[in-house]
Amino acid sequence: MPPSQLKQLKSSLRDSGVVGPQKSKKQKRQNAKTGAGGQERIRRNAALEAIRDRFNPFEIKTAASRSKFDVTTRDGGSKTDKNHRPGVTKSLGEVRRRETLLREMNRKNKVGGVIDRRIGENDPTMTPEERAAERFARESERRLRKESMFNLEEDDDEEEFQLTHKGQSLSFEDGVNLEDYSDKDMGLDEEDSDSELPHKRKRVFEDEDDMGGAADGEDEGEEGLPERKKSKHEVMKEVIAKSKFHKLERQQAKEDDDDLREELDKDLPDLFDMLRGVKPPPKPEPPKDDLGGMNPERAAWIEEGPGKDTEKEYDQRLRQMTFDQRSKPTDRTKTEEEKIEEEAQRLKKLEEERLRRMRGEESSEDEESAKEDGSDVDDMGDSDNESVFDDAKAFGFQMSTDQTTSRPELAVEDEDDFIIDDDLVETRSDVDLSLDGSDDEASFVEDSEGEEEDAQEDEHINGLTIPEGESATTANGAQTAADGLAYTYPCPSDHEEFLDIIKNVAVGDLPTVVQRIRALHHPRLASANKSKLGRFSAILVQHVAYMANQPEHPPFAVLENILRHVHSLAKSHPEEVSQAFRRHLRQMSTERPLNPLPGDLVILTGVFAIFPTSDHFHAIATPAHLTLARYLGQSTVNSLAEISTGTYAASLFLQYQAISKRYMPEFINYVLNALCILCPKEPTTSLGAFPTRSPETSLRLKATKSTVAPRTLRFWDITGPAAGAEEELKLSLITTLVKLLDTASDLWSDKSAFTEIFTPVHAVLTHLVKTWPAKLSKTTLQATLNKVSTHLSQARLHRRPLELHHHKPLAIKSAIPKFEESFNPDKHYDPNRERAELNKVKAEYKREKKGAMRELRKDANFVAREQLRQKKERDAEYERKYKRLVAEVQNEEGREANAYEREKRLRQGKR
Amino acid sequence: MPSLVDGTSSSKKRKSVKNATAPSSKRRAVAETDGPDAMDDLLRLEEQISESRKHYNNIATLISRLGADEDPNLAVAVSLCRVFSRLIASGHMTEASHSAENEKIVVAWLRERCREYQRSLAGIIRKGDASSQITALTLAMRLLNERATHLHGEDIQVWISGFFKNIVEAVVEAKDGQALRAEFVEKFAKQYEDVRYYTFTQIAEYASTERDEETLDAITAIISAIDTVPEPQHKFQNFYSKASKANKKVLSFNAHKKAAQDAWLAVLRGNISQSQRKSLLRIMAHTIEPWFSRPELLMDFLTDSYNFGGATSLLALSGLFYLIQEKNLDYPQFYQKLYSLLDADLLHSKHRSRFFRLMNTFLASTHLPAALIASFIKRLARLALNAPPTAIVVIVPFIYNLFKNHPTCTFMLHRETRDPARKASLEADGMDDPFDPAQKDPLLTAAIDSSLWEIHSLQHHYHPNVAAIARILAEQFTKQWYNIEDFLDYTYQGMMVGELGTEEKPFKRVPVVEYQIPKRIFTDRLLQEDGGVDTAQGSFMRGLWDFA
Questions:
Q1: Is the pLDDT of residue A293 over 60?
Q2: Lesser CB count within 10 Å: N end or C end of chain A?
Q3: Is B291 within a domain?
Q4: Does B146 lie in the same domain as B2?
């Protein structure tokens, strides 16, 4: 059986040394001297506290289940203090609530009161020292801050808002004396500078109040004295004050002017109305001046309004001025050389940009590989979005069923830095067309960014002033008047409409019409014009093809001009023009992939003029390439017209690839096949791995007369030769094809497989030379053959074994399980960063929610308790009052009762 | 007799159907205008025959009324069929041994008339128009059934050497007989197992003699349409004639297969044309081979076709492969032959994807010699230089897979010259391609010493996607393999649609426009400004072409 509580207490007191043998006086004195007594007392108190705690088992709450062993668990292991003190925390919470919640509760439904806005006053975390330090810091900061240069009141303000104590400045540096001094001065200055009075008065009054009568007396005394000589300081102050005053006056005048102007402006609409002869609507009646019925003070305040406004406006202006931009040095005008230099730089940049696109820029390759990696992952795991992963899709190939216009990995890079000039076809372009030829081409090259605005303005004006265009045309003679072209044309919304518009316009005048439509619908004239011109540009693309398809062949000069217009429009409306081209190509591929119309060829020609065909991927150039390749690869070769078309397509292809020099198998196949078809004798053996297509009827060159000479092919040869000119056309075709091979061999001379590509070419050319009719000249043929031979030997010289795989060796994939060096069960090792983050937030949210709920519950309890307490208080009060009243009444009644009793007894006594 | 009643009702139905259809010949139109009378007359004659023997001469009358083969009177044919069916069923056409002499004479006469009728039916099948052909076929088959069922000793004979033979021949030789043959296959040969069996037998016999192309086509059409190969455990019980049940041959699975096999062999041995050979090869795996209990018999045909070259060889490949794989066929120099198939036209042929699928199987083995694989790779690369983009797209992943399976071949992609002497000579003279394209044997082409310059050049293909694919060979081989199937079926049109889409869509990125507007596109505009020499963009076109 444990000893009794009393015994336990005694023993523990003894053990902790609270009670012990009495100390001698000497010892006590010694302790007092060394200060050990204080320490002793602290120690004693701590020991007593501990003993108290130990003997009060309800103060400490231990864990619900006592742990028998030290164990590591997921969450319990790291908890250090298992003994909670519910009483302490509870009372702490109680205190805090009393401080905050209770106060709030009491203030509820009550309006008014004083809010203490002193720095740090309501911040319990700050000690008084900190508060003082903060306030001081704030004040000195304000003093140091350099207000804007236009702030007239700055220096005054500085003085005005200062921490004071009983009128004494709290600032340190020689403040007190100076301040006193100037304060006194101010009293002096009062009469001199009235303007300052409103600012100063408050201060002065304060001073007077604070400092008491002594200062007053002094002031009055000084006032009576004759004027003494002003110190330098005072003079300066006066000067400053005066200048400020004048400044203010000037500003006032200016404001007055402004007001006047504003008033005038206000009347302007009325004036316009009067000019137009419309009666202005009756002005709304001004609000009735019923100030009379008002409180006179308030009325005065309202009347004063405008004056106040000026003050306010002044402040506002002042503030505005602080934000005014200071003027900057302008760029100096550039010299001619510099301009040229700049232009060259810009062109160089654009060219570099083009080359980068041609290479199929690096960033896109990264993207591609990233995509491939991603798809690999897809392959293994994710199968929900795409059941079967298609390898081909990784390269942007797709079956015809699904369509996406552009493939991300090969798409061109953002080209927004490309400067779009608004209107490149100058107003005088119709002059060009009339073969004046004196055009300044420099205006074609668009202006750099800085000058763009001006350029646009110019263009804009040019566009507006149609007469200028007219004057330009009149320079050519009276033809303008005669042709009867209108100056204004509506902007067509579809091709039919356009055809309707140009119904009566001669083909040669078409450029003028287009020019006028463009000028009239310049985007800067109306917001809708941009979309209108976009549609118009698409119509022009359509119209070029349409014109070329017409049986009466339009002059190419007109086609060219329209295409140039399209190009210039494409700069401002790239989307519409590109869509129009794509629409045309799409229509071609679905309706007539193997027998293109002349219009299609013109459009394909336009592609290389308008779009950079050297790009690795281009939304128009790539399909255009495919269109050409498809024709070259699959068309029939039954007539000279078809071969002419093929030759045109082949030349177009070489033109497309003039810069990027890419290889097209179909080109070589077609050209070699066409040569085999046209050459005078059929080759006996296969000359190479190109597939052969034969015409239904022989198209071989017949050795007839020597008068036949090759000529330059004409565009309209694609419709077939004139009667009797077949041999000439055949000869020309052969010559052109050989020339094409010549160019191709130049283009592809650095291809590693040049030998393989051009060995068949060599064979075919040799065959051609061998079988060439003796009467005809074979200089081009021989020249090309020699060239190909040299190129072949060059290629042989430059041939090296391929070394494509200079890659870093791939590391073998590690199969070691991921092992945490010092695993902590409390930590989460989620490899998925996002998920881990999310879980963390979730847990935090849960914890916070729990805590908040608990707090709220406690608050509610507290409120209920408080309300109960208050109610009880009120009840008790009432009770007390009631009792008091009852007692009072009883008192009185008692007296009466006594009187009655007495009376009664008296009467009874009497009886 | 139920069958008889059936016969009349069905024939009436057919007639009514025919009345509904537009009459094709004038004569029949006439016959139908006086329809009621003629019909009554027919019925009367028919009645009389069934009533008594003395009206047997009516049969001759009816046969004479039958009309020409090209333009038969079908009503008469139908009623004749009824007459003969009745006579056969009632036993009037069997002569008992004890019967009297005159009876025998009557029977013989009847048989003679019956044969006459059969001949004219066959004639109608051969020469009539489509509807009468089909009617005649139905009538003939009905009569055949009656004969097989009721005439003693004819149950097999009528199929093998008798009437059925005539029918099959007539069906095969019928002019414009597509509908007829389809009817024959659908209604009879496919439905009834005995008909199928005997059809095969008859055709085997028929085709064993030299026939012309058209006939062979017809035969092929018939037997290729009969594609319901029975299972080995199949119970044969679906017979046209009840009598067939007694025939053991018709009940045996092997006999059925043998009959079909013989028929096919007979066809294949015939002098078939090039296009027929191709179409036969095309159906080889699905239709023909299942019939063969001994597919080895196809060997000759397939090897012949394989040696033919060109598209035929391509088509023969799959059949041959089946034999090699399943039947242990030893085909010497198979790979050499396969190698020779890689010619200029292969990549432009429409059988390209089929060939690549097969080649993918043939070259799948990792035990093939590297030299051989290298030859295939090099050859394909050479062909790719002249191939359309759709083919290049297949070739490159295919080569990738080969490289992945045969890492020895990767020397063709990466070969560092370490020997200083060799290096020096390379620097001085360059090199030739060691690959010998003319060499027939893929083991001897020295392709493994060569490099794939062709694929390297194709990295500069005009189409960006193709170029990107060509680039996979220059990158690290991290991918296990490419699924060739995904690359096979591309076309120009498909690629165009892939580029352009089928409808307009807003651009994700606005296409770049050439920054400089050219001074001229077609004409010599402002040429003197450039000093008269055209060097601007597009000068090449303007130099070659005269735009006027």
A1: no
A2: N
A3: no
A4: yes
Say yes or no: B407 and B466 in one domain: yes
Interface test with B, best of A802, A803, A806 (most B CBs within 10 A): A802
Locate the domains of chain A by residue range: 1-61+83-97, 152-215+238-267, 414-611, 612-800, 874-911
- State how far the Cα of A642 lies from the Cα of A652, in Å rounded to an integer: 15
Question: Please, which residues have CB within 8 angstroms of residue A398's CB and are 6 or more apart in sequence?
Answer: A390, A392, A404, B494, B498
Question: Based on the domain organization, do B425 and B493 belong to the same domain?
Answer: yes
- Verify that B123 and B205 share a domain, yes or no: no
Min mean pLDDT across A111-115, A188-192, B285-289, B461-465 is at A188-192
Q: Chain B closest CA to A757's CA: distance in Å? A: 7
Of A395, A405, A574, the CB nearest to B468: A395
Does the pLDDT of residue A200 top 60, yes or no?
Answer: no
Q: How many angstroms separate the CA atoms of A313 and A251, rounded?
A: 11
pLDDT of residue B140: 77
Q: Please report the residues numbered 718 through 757 in chain A whose beta carbons come closer than 8 angstroms to any beta carbon of chain B.
A: 736, 739-740, 743, 751-757
Please judge whether B467 and A360 are an interchain contact, meaning their C-beta atoms are less than 8 angstroms apart.
yes
Cα torsion A638, A640, A643, A645 to 10°: value is -120
Distance CA A754, CA A792 (A): 7
- State the best of B459, B461, B499 to mutate against chain A, taking most chain A CBs within 10 Å: B499
Whether residues B510 and A609 touch (CB distance < 8 A) is answered with no
A405/B545 CB distance under 8 A: no
- State whether B212 and B103 are in the same domain: no
Q: How far apart are CA B289 and CA A842, in angstroms?
A: 67
Query: What's the pLDDT tens digit per position in A860-908?
Result: 999 999 999 999 999 999 999 999 999 988 888 888 888 888 899 989 8
* Winning range, highest mean pLDDT, from A90-104, A116-130, A305-319: A90-104
Inform me whether the pLDDT recorded for A839 exceeds 50: yes
Residues A254, A255, A259: CA angle, nearest 5 degrees: 120
Q: Which residues of chain B have pLDDT under 70?
A: 1-38, 50-55, 57, 65, 67-72, 91-100, 148-162, 236-237, 241-251, 530-532
B541 and B398 share one domain: no
Query: Does B414 sit within 8 Å of A589, measured CB to CB?
Result: no
Whether this model's ipTM surpasses 0.85 comes out as: no
Residue B85 counted as domain residue: yes
Q: Is B119 a domain residue?
A: yes
Q: For residue B81, give both structure tokens.
A: 């069929």
CB within 8 Å: B544 and A736: yes
Average pLDDT in chain A: 74
H helices, E strands: number in chain B: 27, 1
pLDDT tens per residue across span A566-618: 888 888 888 888 888 998 988 888 888 888 888 888 899 888 888 888 888 88
Buried b (16+ CB within 10 A) or exposed e, A20-52: eeeeeeeeeeeeeeeeeeeeeeeeeeebeeebe
User: How much is the pLDDT for B317?
Assistant: 81
Q: How many CA atoms lie within 13 A of A248 on its CB side?
A: 15
Candidates B402, B514, B350, B424; CA nearest to A567 is B514
Domain boundary among B221, B247, B266: B266
Based on the structure, what is the number of domains in chain B?
4
Query: Quick one: B54 and B197 in the same domain?
Result: no
Shared domain check, B483 and B547: no
B542: in domain: yes
Sequence-ordered list of residues with C-beta below 8 angstroms from that of A641, at least 6 positions apart, any chain? A717, A718, A719, A720, A721
Instruction: Name the most confidently modeled range: A545-549, A551-555, A771-775.
Output: A545-549
> Testing the interface with B: which of A391, A413, A417, A568 to mutate, by most B Cβ within 10 A?
A391
Task: Note down the domain range covering B108.
Answer: 1-176
